[in-house]
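Thread title: Can someone regenerate the structure for this chain?

I was given the following input by a collaborator and told the matching structure tokens would be attached. They weren't. Posting the sequence so someone can regenerate them.
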Amino acid sequence: MARSEELSVTHQGPEEQVNAVGGTAVERRWLVLLLSIGAGFLLTVVWSAEFVDKTIGGNVARTVLGHDPEAPISGAMAGIAFAFTSGLAGTFTACNIAAFGAVAPLLGAAGSRWGRLVQSLKPLGWMSLGMLVVSAVYGAVVGIVGTSMPQFSQAETIPGVLSGRSVQSMVAFGIVGLAMLYMGLSALGFVRDPFLRLHSRFPYAQTVFMGALIGGFLIGRPYPLFRQLFRDAAESGNPLYGAAAFMLQSVGNIAIMAVIFIVLSVASGPRLQMWMTKPGRAAVFMAVTLIVAGAFTFLYWDVRLLARREIIPWYPIAPWAA
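Best answer:
Regenerated them for you:
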């Protein structure tokens, strides 16, 4: 994250109380908020799960594995390989798109090329810690009781009815989306920074929390290749295998984004740092990425899903995404 300990509150009246970087107010925060929510909404309208899940994800998994990714998983080693590959293949799925909002605000380290590399690895490491803890715990739970969980079900969806699997997805991604929205609002000064008291003792608290949200993607993830891994872990009855498989799935989810983040940090660090030195830009950059990702996640998995299940009458969807 952009270091939230650098964010402060200036008091200029009820309508002007905003977060700031370097003590300068974020300008036009309402415009930033509305445009960011609008961008997240438009993304839900044009997003095609069929194209991303099957065309992109399926082809990536088939290329890496060398066989049909929907083939049964035979053995623990095959499961481990499948876990990372399916996570990699799911990088750009709607389940995982919010991870971009978590990684993007980490940019902006200064110093030499080597120094920027080292500095970029620190927040990435803390974010991975939060992600892996949640993934491991959930994977262990699945290894013990997974066959009785809603995600294990392969029942067909019924129009007008929310299955237990859909409810689990709505709850998990609804929480993730709202949490990201809240942190984006705090960056703009609309709400209090929830990590304010922790920053002096643990400056990477928010980064760890963002990692935990990424790990939480697995709790509601309906991505077909992940559900295949979920069923394999559940049927194994082995919590250690479940934890290892889910951790590798999460690592695969952020592998491409982590590489992009490191390359951008090293290649454009000074220029990006200079761009961000203008008062308010770091806060706006963090807010935009979090609000866009949060709005997309909540609207896609809680509102658009209700329309697809015919619980609500309508939600705008592009013809290619219907």
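The two ends are 35 Å apart (CA to CA).
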